[in-house]
Amino acid sequence: MYCKNFGFAAGNSNCDLYQKSLHRMATYPVEVVLLEHYGAAVGEESMTPFATAIQTAEDTRSAVENSYRLTGDVTKTTEESTRFVLVRSPDYLSRQGDYDHCDRADGQVHYKSTGRKGKELEIIMKVTLGPKNCLYPILTTLVGANVNGKPNYITIAHVGIMDYGSISLGMGKIHYTNAGIKENGCFSVNIPSVDMVKETDYCGIVSGKKTDKAKLFENFYGKLKTAPMIKQCPINMECKLIQIVDFPKHDIFIGEIVETYIEEDCVKDGVVDYGKVHPLYFSMDGPNYWKLGEPFAKAWHVGKELKKA
Ligand SMILES: Cc1cc2nc3c(=O)[nH]c(=O)nc-3n(C[C@H](O)[C@H](O)[C@H](O)COP(=O)(O)O)c2cc1C
């Protein structure tokens, strides 16, 4: 390790230790690069060669892990790893102008950040993912439309609420269902429960161009007459098409909800019991299906506690 190329890694087999060590590193005025499986490699200069940083990160990680194995104590291990850094790069800490005090005489390291760089460094602690959409997990729906006079269903997760009464669907232009929505000026949004995961996935991997997907379900029609709905789904919303936004590869269909149908045992006094609906969620990461958790706080209420403070 050189003084000018400095690498650091925490034993990420121990999450607490890893986090604590990272926080400590965040007080140093250096660049921090998170490396999966290596912990953190810290390059003193942005031009630090990665190979060197990774190698020193690996060395340091094994030292940190060894120390944790011996002491079993996060605080002692953090101190130990700081000592390790000082041995490997003796003048590293003393060169940091941002510290009030750096004392190695008693074998203990005491230092305090002046906080001058604190804000800037907090930002560095995040890793960037590029322009990645993280609005998942999101509700998974089965959108229904009559195509050439026959019901067809497509799995759509990119569903939005435009205002309380209207829904948007982001649907790739290549899909068979799009023509049916345009032809009839309506569609349905059916909410499957988790026990319909196989049928829901199937409708998302097979096209109505070649396969009759509607035969999987009991179909029914409502007020609009040409928006097919699925009896097995606990909730069905019948929508009138009000606008199509033309994206390069997608039709964004915007519909107004004209009627909603729900299983009797999933609603009480007009209030939907989502615990009984058991809706299915989808995340692009994985990709996976998720289940709903528990309600844990009252909306438009829990924040009032901060008003009092
Ligand atoms: C979980 C899941 C979610 C999906 N969400 C969307 C979506 O939001 N928009 C879209 O255009 N396609 C989505 N798809 C892909 C379509 O459902 C799939 O291409 C389907 O087979 C098209 O059916 P069709 O050709 O009968 O219209 C999704 C697929 C799955 C499995």
Average pLDDT level: 79
Query: How large is the count of helical segments?
Result: 8
What ligands does this structure carry? flavin mononucleotide
User: Strands of the largest sheet, in order across it?
Assistant: 5-4-8-11-12-7-6
Number of domains: 2
Structural class: alpha+beta
The CATH architecture of the largest domain can be named as: Roll
Provide a concise account of the structure shown.
The chain is α+β, with helices and mostly antiparallel strands.
Describe, in plain words, how this protein is organized in 3D.
There is one protein chain. By secondary structure, this protein is α+β, with helices and mostly antiparallel strands. It has 2 domains: 15-124, no CATH class; 138-291, Pnp Oxidase, Chain A. It is built from 8 helices and 16 strands. It has helices spanning 15-26, 50-71, 74-88, 118-124, 177-184, 197-203, 274-277, 304-308, and strands at 31-35, 39-43, 138-139, 141-147, 150-156, 159-163, 166-172, 186-191, 219-220, 229-230, 235-246, 250-262, 267-268, 271-272, 280-283, 288-291. The strands form 5 sheets. It has a 7-stranded antiparallel β-sheet with strand order 5-4-8-11-12-7-6. It is elongated and about 80 Å long. The model is unreliable at 1-15, 29-41, 44-48 and 92-124 (pLDDT under 50). It binds flavin mononucleotide. Flavin mononucleotide binds next to strand 5 and strand 7.
